[in-house]
Amino acid sequence: MGIAYFLDPKSKAGVDMHGDDCIDTLSQLKDFIKTKYELSHNENIIKNEIENFICQIGNPTAKLREFISNNSTKAYWILLGRKSFPILGKIADIIFSIPTSQAA
Fold it and tell me: Do residues 74 and 98 touch, judged by C-beta distance below 8 A?
């Protein structure tokens, strides 16, 4: 759940997450990427992409802010996010293709 919130551009890269929640989510995200894509030897690439995502989404330009507010999370990742953040884009494809439960 934390990873989905973090990757949702409307959450501004989880800006509202506090302390341990943010640390745990970023740790889970890094572990998922390393496990899924066997990128453990490229930890700096993962770190840089996450930091760049936080910078771009945490402080969006007016044009990006308008795009985010007028489009779905999935549209962001399909039209913009995948190009700028290819590793996170693969994770977003997985996370946002999971149907939500009506039981919640």
Answer: no
Are the CB atoms for 77 and 96 separated by under 8 Å?
A: yes
Which single residue is written with the structure tokens 């990128």? Answer: 39
Stronger pLDDT, 5 or 84, i.e. the higher one: 84
Using alpha carbons only, how large is the chain's radius of gyration in Å?
Answer: 13
Q: What is the DSSP letter of 80?
A: I
What is the rounded CA–CA span in Å between residue 81 and residue 1? 19
Q: Which residue has the tokens 């997450």?
A: 17
Query: Rounded to an integer, what is the distance from CA 90 to the centroid of its chain?
Result: 10
Burial class (CB in 10 A: 0-12, 13-18, 19+), 104: exposed
Is residue 10 within 8 Å of residue 22, measured between CB atoms? no
pLDDT in tens, 22-33: 778 888 888 888
Q: Other C-beta atoms within 10 Å of 10: how many?
A: 12
